Amino acid sequence: MRATAAELDVVVPNFKRRLSGVTSTIVQLVPGQAEHVRIATLGPGLPDHVPKLGWRQVPGLLRQPERRPFRIWHARRNVEMLAGVVLKTVFRAPLRLVFTSAAQRHHTWATRFLIRRMDAVIATSRRSGRFLKVPYTVVMHGVDCRRFHPPAGPEDLFEGAGLPGRYAVGCFGRIRPQKGTDLFVDAMIRLLPDCPDWTAVIGGRATSEHREFHQRLLERISEAELDDRIVFLGEVPDVRPWYRRLLLHVAPSRNEGFGLTPLEAMASRTAVVASDAGSHAEVIAEGVTGAIVAAGDGEALTEAIRRYLGAPEVATEHGRNARAHVEGNFSLDNEVRGVNAVYETLWREAERCSR
User: Average pLDDT of 90-116?
Assistant: First the structure.
C-alpha cells in the first residue's frame, strides 16, 4: 500500500533490509496504528500489507502535512535518528523526532548525541528506561492476540508434528550464544533422559558466523544419543503453530533488547521459563505464568525447567494464566494506544503554543 507524503502524519523509517526484532515490531505495529493515524513506513524489506512511502516521495516531506502542524518521524535505530535530524535541521522539514529505545546498556556517545535531539523518547521497558539520560515514556511491546492464539485444531497439537513423546518444550530465536541456545541444549541433555514423555524443539537459523557454534551443539546432542529428542527445526515459514504445540517455552538469552518470544508463547497459551534479560522479568508473572532465572545461570535454568517437565499439569495451568495475562496487559492494541498517545502529546503541545 503506497501513500503520498502530503497525506501522512507519521513516517516510520526502516533502514535495515534483513529481518530483525525491530523490523518485526514495525510490521506488527504500523498496520494497527494506521487505524488511528495516517502513517507509512520508509525503507526496504517490508511486506505488502504495511503502508509504505516511496523514496521518490521523500521530497514531499519538506512540505507541511495537510492536517497537522508537523509530521512525526519515528526512528528505532541510530541511522534513522540521524536521517530525521538531517531532514529537520538541514532541510527544515516540518518534523518532530521520536525515538524508541529497547537497549539495556549504556549508550555510546553517538547514540546519546542523537537521543538528545529527539523531541520525545519511548522506552520499551522500565529497565531500558534506566539507561536513558533524557525524559522518556514507557510503552512496552505488545503481541497480536489474534495472530498468536491457543490451539484451534488438530494441526496445532504436538501429536501431529511427527515427533516422539507426548509433550514439547521449545526454544525459538537465532542460534547464537547471545540467545543462550547452548544453555537450553545443556539443560535438555541433562533432563530428557529422565523425562521420556518430553521432546525438545529449537526453532531459528544460525548465521554464517555462528555455524560452528551450531555444529558443536549438534555434536553434543549426538554424543548424548538424543538426536531424535532434541530437534532443530531451522527457520520455519511460520513459527506460530509451533508455539501452540509447546507445553513450555524457554527463553534463555544472556542479553536481550526487549525479547518478544515469551509474549508470543504466552499469547499461544504456553508457560514460559526465561532469563531476566530484556523485559522478561517485567512480562512474566513469577509462579503464575512461568519462571524467571538469572541470565547465564545454566544450573538455575535447568532446575526451573525440571519443575515443569515433572509436572505437565502445572505447565498447562500456567499456560492458561499466561494467555489471560497477555490479553489483559500486553496486547498489541495497548502498544498502539501508548505509541499514538506520545504523538498526540507532541501535536497538542504545538497547538497550545500556537494560541
Answer: 95
Cα–Cα distances in angstroms (integers) from residue 83 to residues 14, 69, 78, 91, 284, in the given order:
11, 20, 9, 11, 36
Of 258, 296, 291, 285, nearest to 127 (Cα)?
258
pLDDT tens-place string over residues 145-173: 999 999 999 999 999 888 999 999 999 99
In this predicted model, what pLDDT tens digit does every residue of 314-339 receive, in sequence order?
Answer: 999 999 999 999 999 999 999 999 99
Residue 16 in this model has a pLDDT that exceeds 90: no
Please give the pLDDT value at position 228.
Answer: 95
CATH superfamily of 154-329: Glycogen Phosphorylase B; (3.40.50.2000)
Q: For the CA atoms of the chain, what is the radius of gyration? A: 22
Positions of CATH 3.40.50.2000 in the chain: 2-142+332-354, 154-329
Q: Are 139 and 279 in contact (CB under 8 A)?
A: no
* Domain at 2-142+332-354, CATH homologous superfamily: Glycogen Phosphorylase B; (3.40.50.2000)
The label of the residue with cell 558466523 reads 209
* Cα–Cα distance measured from residue 72 to residue 268, given in angstroms and rounded to the nearest whole number: 34
Burial of 238 (C-beta count, 10 Å sphere; 0-12/13-18/19+): exposed
Mean pLDDT, the chain, as a whole number? Answer: 94
Nearest CA-CA partner of 184 in 293, 266, 264 = 293
- Bridge partners, 238 (sequence order): none
Tally the residues of the chain. 355
Cell of 311: 509436572
From the CB of residue 152, how many other CB atoms can be counted at a distance below 10 Å? 9
